[in-house]
């Protein structure tokens, strides 16, 4: 009986993660609230540092700010939930020991809400970056991408350097060891579940925020950059036995950034 109960709760957690992740992926794919869908924006992409020139979008207002925030947050949900699934599933199994019935499902939702709230904060900051660059010659508003090989190259180098920092490694270790995280930071009750989710979200943000900024290099709505970064995050989480992977990624990004800054070295974006 205990095994069947545990399996049921884990299935609930998996269904919540898969359902929300799929909904977020579809929202991003169809570009809800944006002028074009994700495939259309990807097809119109240009070279790194030289995005296709498009007419500037409508004037900034509450509706546009809200649409951009929704785009960023839902895209973050689609990109980050797959890598967060192990800790959510393990949390569901852990809460089964102390909670019963619907309380476990509610706790899973609270944990997920706390986690996603951290990425909502990141998304709000990303919108502020959009707003700050809206009239800059260094930003193609229509394609939502940085303009200029030097600027894009510097971003790649900066993100590559962050990959080599102790903060990156410390946050990544927390993300790679969900059992250890839950043991150290366990809190009872729904409020505790939300706090735990937010706490894990902070570690996740510390691990991945710089990588997410690379969307400004390739284009915020560029399918290949979104898939590539999501896969990279997933690989880093699963590579506890290969601690040199983040450093290797950092070295590649630094080399790519230097190459982008060299005249005539940039290939198709």
Automatic annotation (TrEMBL):
Keyword set, alphabetical order: Membrane, Transmembrane, Transmembrane helix
Transmembrane segments: 12-32, 70-94, 106-133, 145-164, 202-227, 247-266
UniProt keyword Transmembrane helix, yes or no: yes
Cross-referenced InterPro entries: PpoB2-like
Name of protein: DUF2182 domain-containing protein
């Amino acid at each position: 009986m205990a095994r069947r109960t545990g399996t049921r709760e884990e299935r609930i957690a998996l269904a919540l993660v898969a359902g929300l992740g799929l909904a977020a992926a579809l929202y991003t794919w169809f570009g809800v609230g944006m002028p074009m869908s994700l495939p259309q924006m990807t097809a119109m992409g240009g070279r790194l540092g030289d995005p296709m020139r498009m007419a500037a979008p409508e004037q900034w207002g509450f509706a546009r700010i809200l649409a951009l925030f929704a785009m960023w947050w839902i895209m973050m949900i689609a990109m980050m939930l797959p890598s967060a699934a192990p800790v959510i599933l393990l949390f569901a199994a852990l809460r089964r020991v102390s909670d019963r019935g619907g309380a476990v499902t509610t706790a899973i939702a609270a944990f997920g809400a706390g986690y996603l709230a951290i990425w909502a904060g990141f998304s709000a900051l990303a919108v502020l970056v959009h707003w700050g660059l809206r009239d800059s010659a260094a930003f193609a508003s229509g394609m939502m991408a940085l303009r200029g090989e030097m600027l894009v190259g510097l971003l790649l180098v900066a993100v590559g350097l962050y990959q080599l920092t102790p903060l990156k490694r410390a946050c990544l270790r927390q993300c790679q060891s969900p059992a250890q995280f839950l043991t150290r930071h366990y809190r009872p009750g729904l409020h505790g579940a939300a706090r735990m989710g937010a706490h894990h979200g902070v570690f996740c943000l510390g691990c991945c925020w710089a990588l997410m900024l690379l969307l400004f290099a390739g284009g915020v709505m560029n399918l290949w950059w979104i898939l590539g970064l999501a896969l990279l995050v997933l690989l880093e989480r699963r590579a506890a036995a290969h601690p040199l992977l983040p450093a290797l990624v950092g070295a590649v990004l630094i080399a790519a950034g230097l190459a982008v800054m060299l005249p005539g070295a940039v290939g198709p974006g």
